[in-house]
Amino acid sequence: MTEIRGERRAAALPLAVAGLVLSLFPIVYLHVASVGELSPISHTISDYIFVAHGSGLLAVTALSLAAASAVLLAVLVRRGLPRRGPVTVLMGLWVGGLTVAAVFPTDPTGTPTSFSGAVHRYAGAVMFASLPLAGWLISRRFISSTAVRRFSVAAGLTSCAFMVSHVTLSYEGAVLLGLFERVLFLMLYGLLFALAAAVGREARS
User: Which InterPro entries match (predicted)?
Assistant: First the structure.
């Protein structure tokens, strides 16, 4: 029984990494397929639901990312992270925010905010604030990793810029909302991959 549990633990981390990699394929495809239709500078990633097959592909990305993050959280808990601590809560908010944002789509640009659009927006705010803070706490209290700490700080700063860009930031008339969100997602993916790598190193040491 102990050997079976050990094998499950060993398989969990690669499963989380596989989920992170899988989540990248649909969103990369949507970026390529929508060239000339949506602007990566001004349109958010959520706007891809309005292109062909965008709703399903975006859901695959969001749910795969949420599942991978949940598995990574489970690995951290098995490694000693407190089940009821702030990191677990923050990671849970990240996973929950991704799931809710996938279920409640955004509104088309320029239209009044619907109930679904409002839920999507607030879910996004929660998840974008939660993961950088969770990464920072993990790097300070649980796993000593310079990469996790740096990605957490970068993601936190970019998250603030993304929030501000909703109302103020533009360049030569172009709203920079999409640009900041894409940079933010790059930082968040970097944080999750760095966290998985750090956990793997500690497991082997």
Answer: DUF998 (IPR009339)
